[in-house]
């Protein structure tokens, strides 16, 4: 299922939903993913101050993929010279 997200809170709700659908307690999920329970709680609450690297660690740990829909004008991913 693909879902269009508008903010961090909506992503956090989906992370919580995915964890609960897998019957994993928050502390167990955090431990198996390698983040603190406090951090996972921040993600699930949609905190806008989470670290990107750890966020992707959580998404990967719960089997979630983040897909970006680029407009047609974008032909390729930027290389480091374009940033």
Automatic annotation (TrEMBL):
<protein>
    <submittedName>
        <fullName>Helix-turn-helix domain protein</fullName>
    </submittedName>
</protein>
<dbReference type="GO" id="GO:0003677">
    <property type="term" value="F:DNA binding"/>
</dbReference>
<dbReference type="Pfam" id="PF13560">
    <property type="entry name" value="HTH_31"/>
</dbReference>
<feature type="domain" description="HTH cro/C1-type">
    <location>
        <begin position="15"/>
        <end position="70"/>
    </location>
</feature>
<dbReference type="InterPro" id="IPR001387">
    <property type="entry name" value="Cro/C1-type_HTH"/>
</dbReference>
<dbReference type="InterPro" id="IPR010982">
    <property type="entry name" value="Lambda_DNA-bd_dom_sf"/>
</dbReference>
